User: What shape does this take?
Amino acid sequence: MSVFPVILSQDKFIHRDSLKFPVEERALQFGDGVYEVIRIYKGSYYLLDEHIDRLYRSAEAIKIKLSQSKEVLKGLLLELLKRNNITEDAKLYMQVSRGSAPRDHIFPEGVAPNIYAYVQSFPRNLSSLKGGVSVITHRDMRWENCYIKSLNLLPNVMAKQVAKEHGCYEAILHRNGLVTECSASNVYLVKDGKIFTHPTTKNILHGCVRMAIERFVQELEIPLVEEAFLIEDIFEADEIFLSSSTSEITPIVSVDGHQVGDGKPGTITRKLQVAYEKDANIQENLIANV
Ligand SMILES: Cc1ncc(COP(=O)(O)O)c(C=O)c1O
Assistant: This one.
């Protein structure tokens, strides 16, 4: 997977090999920052405004004030695609830290945040999208402010690694028996024609793809119930699926080794995948051709 050579550092475009951080950088020492991952289809961002809005919301929640306005940042991100002549499917990673300063837990004064962004090519995972994935369940060991897209991802990393070690794609996280989300995606259960998912409290990230799904269900007239479900409910579900910028809308066909529904991606999941492809202006129309 190739990383494009020009990256954004503060408001400058530089070669990726010239990015340097001081030893005392707060993202490195404290994970003191926030980030975004944005999907790009054939050289165009998908859900760009939603991601930019969330970046500013996350930054504000941890009292980081970005140096540039949303409009300026958007312009820089668009320019980044041009400078790299990107016309393919790709993804952008962007992070903002509180800045570089002598190590001290207390916020440094008069220090500007550090921001950088780069793009790497990222083809769609057609086999997962078509055939679905297997997942495990895992205790949600994260803090109480999961609505902030913070750089502190250790519990997410640990849970996803356990999933990998079980030959699975993701880990469905649960707190006190209730399903919150996955380690790097939101999760949904379908029962009797209704979609259930955790409400957007502080315990989950309000995914940008979820925001798109909230639009799709209105058009498709599918009820979306923002109510947390139990781990046990999974084993009675008709369909389960997950959503994220990297995974799009991916069917889940097995949980902890138990088949979900009839073991195939469900009808509602498929309808949402079709709506996603239309919304993201994806030409291949993969799902319609399944
Ligand atoms: C914990 C978590 N939940 C949900 C999501 C989905 O968010 P989005 O749809 O904005 O990619 C992500 C994405 O990285 C995530 O890390």
Residues 37, 156, 181, 184-186, 205, 207-210, 243-245 surround pyridoxal-5'-phosphate (CB under 6 Å). The chain has a mean pLDDT of 97. The CA atoms of residues 181 and 187 lie 5 Å apart. The chain is about 30% helix and 30% strand.
